[in-house]
From TrEMBL:
2-oxoglutarate(2OG)-dependent dioxygenase that catalyzes the conversion of 2-oxoglutarate to succinate and CO(2) in an iron-dependent manner. However, does not couple 2OG turnover to the hydroxylation of acyl-coenzyme A derivatives, implying that it is not directly involved in phytanoyl coenzyme-A metabolism. Does not show detectable activity towards fatty acid CoA thioesters. GO terms for molecular function: metal ion binding. InterPro entries: Phytyl_CoA_dOase-like (IPR008775). This is Phytanoyl-CoA dioxygenase domain-containing protein 1. Keywords: Iron, Metal-binding. The lineage of its organism: Eukaryota, Metazoa, Chordata, Craniata, Vertebrata. It holds the Pfam family PhyH. Its cofactor is Fe cation. The keyword Nucleotide-binding does not apply. Belongs to the PhyH family. PHYHD1 subfamily. The keyword Metal-binding applies.
């Protein structure tokens, strides 16, 4: 019995997303959360977060440090924080476990539990069901959506950041490690919006210039009424087409919304843009999905 049904495939193709219940057991979700807890326990806070604001120059250095930390994170495990969690001395204003926005972008490569889930039989089955021939893993993230401060993610398309020629070769798998509800910041989609291409691209700027990335084109204004909510139970997953427009609201509830998410690309006859912020490295080429 396929984990993903023909009807799921149809819905994914028509809407650009589909909710798949029961990808992980409750215990598997708890193990991933527990492991992340340990990673955060041992976390080294990046230097740019500790920078004190005194002059414009310092602020520039902090911004540049932050950008560099992000753009070189494709083959590492790095920490990204919510706004306003550090004071002017670079010390936490909130408990450190509640300070993070996300951890990325190579959990799938270096953390055995995350690697196991990423390459699991169910995930491989989804790729096969969709007819992928040579899928590779591009990146992975653990997203916290902290209670009370979990920031809004504005409407966007993943292919803005992960560009391929032709388009349509990237998809995200977004796994709820806790119930994702309308109250704690679940995803919202515009069904069918994956058929109109992309409205903007994030690209690396030439070496030696700052900022390190820039946008070509602009994000469109979207009609709020067109968005539909996609709540997911713990252990369920949302399959996200690279061009479908989606967003999530800020989390004003008292419940966190932990998620493990990763992106897959069909590498057969696909050109990965050398302008993308994320690039494979010698240390970490994009690993094939169909290996353990």
């Amino acid at each position: 019995m396929d984990f993903m049904t023909d009807r799921d495939v149809q819905k994914y193709k028509e809407d650009g997303f589909v909710v798949l219940d029961g990808l992980l057991s409750s215990q598997e979700c708890d193990e991933l959360k527990q492991r992340m807890n340990e990673i955060v326990d041992q976390m080294d806070v990046p230097e740019h977060c500790r920078t004190t604001f005194t002059t414009y120059h310092d602020e520039q250095l902090k911004t540049q440090g932050s950008a560099d930390y992000f753009i070189t994170s494709g083959d590492k495990i790095r920490f990204f924080f919510e706004k306003g969690v550090f004071n002017d001395q670079g010390e936490f204003k909130v408990p450190k476990h509640l300070s993070l926005n996300k951890v990325g972008h190579a959990l799938h490569a270096y953390e055995p539990l995350y690697k196991k889930v990423t390459h699991s039989a169910k995930v491989q089955g989804i790729a096969k069901k969709l007819g992928l021939v040579n899928p590779v893993i591009l990146q992975s993230m653990y997203i916290f959506k902290q209670p009370g401060i979990g920031g809004e993610v504005t409407a966007h398309q993943d292919a803005t950041f992960l560009h391929t020629e032709p388009l349509g070769r990237v998809m995200g798998l977004w796994i709820a490690l806790e119930d994702a509800t309308v109250n704690n910041g679940c995803l919202w989609f515009i069904p069918g919006s994956h058929r109109s291409g992309i409205s903007r691209r994030m690209v690396r700027t030439p070496k030696g210039t700052f900022p390190l990335t820039d946008f070509i084109g602009r994000e469109q204004a979207y009609d709020e009424d067109k968005f539909v909510a996609a709540p997911v139970k713990k252990g369920g997953a949302v399959l996200i087409h690279g061009e479908v427009v989606h967003r999530s609201a800020e989390n004003t509830s008292e419940e966190s919304r932990h998620v493990y998410t990763f992106h897959i690309m069909e590498a057969l006859d696909t050109r990965w843009s050398p302008d993308n912020w994320l690039q494979p490295t010698e240390e970490l080429p994009f690993p094939p999905l169909f290996t353990k």
